[in-house]
User: What shape does this take?
Amino acid sequence: MQKPKGTYDVFGERGKKELYIRGLMETLMNKYNYEYVDTPIFEASELFHRGVGETTDIVTKETYDFVDRGERNMTLRPEGTAGVVRSFVENKMYARESMPVKVWYFGPMFRYERPQSGRYRQFKQFGVEVFGSEDALVDAEVISIPVNLYKILGLKGIKVNINSLGDKESRENYREALIKHFEPVIDTLCEDCKERFKKNPLRILDCKIDADKEIMKTAPTTIDYLNDESRTHFENVKKYLEALGIDYVVNPRVVRGLDYYTHTVFEVEADIPSFGAQNVLCGGGRYNGLVEQVGGPSTNGVGFALGFERLINALEAENIELPYEKEIDAYVIPMSDNEKAYGFDVLQTLRMSGFNADIDYMSRKIGGNFKQADRLNSKFVIIIGEEETKSNILTIKNNRTKEEYKVSKELVIDFFDDNLEKEEH
Ligand code: HAM
Assistant: This one.
């Protein structure tokens, strides 16, 4: 049996890496004072049609749809925002006194795309959504989250692209300009584009088939159609990014492939030689109409999501070593079955006092056990023979210096406290 196309298994070093980065995300989100949310990985298909948009590639070509045993049309979530918005509305978070509502999430998403490096059918996103504020501070804060996460991890090759689609009125003016631009040549574009032209001309700009045509390059840009209010909002976003010392580029080609955006949109791309085609590390923006579209009261929103696998690929491309635990503190060796229970108790005491410890489960001979201690990168080895169980004086060996200590069982934690840094609990 093999895993499905476009999926991957996590084990070994990869598992350690993933847990380490997830831990950093959690710590960072606590500092930003965001609340953790977790929504189902499947939702009613209609949510994504209404939320992500009927004419997007994600909804027309990439969803994993199924009919459940109760004849309901369900979809594995292709992204996190629609589900979080549904949850925000259903749980009446809009009625909270303390606004804005700031949440973060982490989990698997599913898109039926052609798999390649950095593009999977099941992938993980870390994302945030902020509801209830129209302040450009929030747009800038949301952009600062991935930028700061990359900084904490030591990732250097990033480029922050920002753009603005403007409010409803600006978007409408832009839509008309796009129609004027593409109308004379629509027959020369692909079948999908002809369909997009009728339903949602903005989506023509996502086309991969016609991407290199001159008519795409000369298309009007959203910035030119911003009304005063939208322009001021965008200026403020830029001002606040500058206040945080975040370098950005205004890139009018960033329009995002999802329908819900208004005002600010952004993408961070990997600027690393040899990184590959899938170089968009994260993306997001403001979506002031989405909550209403999903059935809630009119509420502003802004958020982003980053691809977990692309982040790890970028760290590997820059040869960044993550400082996750590669060693254990102690390896307990009972010399025979008679000492197992005693050793097991010592092991538990160590673990419950904050040390990483393990024991021989394979009844190895002493030589094999020392090899195992080396394989586990154990800093200390605790040897428990008949003598030790009787005297309650343990033999502890530093596995590097080979120095040997005799330590009373009652003082074993003091010994490790003195010799090792304790893990925070
Ligand atoms: P998105 O641009 O579709 O936005 O996805 C965000 C990120 O997820 C991408 O930049 C990329 O890193 C990663 N990603 C997307 N598809 C794949 C794939 N097939 N394989 C691996 N990684 C992938 C959204 O999903 C929006 N919900 C973001 C958002 C949140 N906007 C507002 N709030």
The first helix runs from residue 12 to 31. Residues 217 and 276 are 22 Å apart (CA to CA). Residues 79-81, 111, 113, 119-120, 123, 125, 127, 129, 258, 280-285, 303-307, 309-310 surround histidyl-adenosine monophosphate (CB under 6 Å).
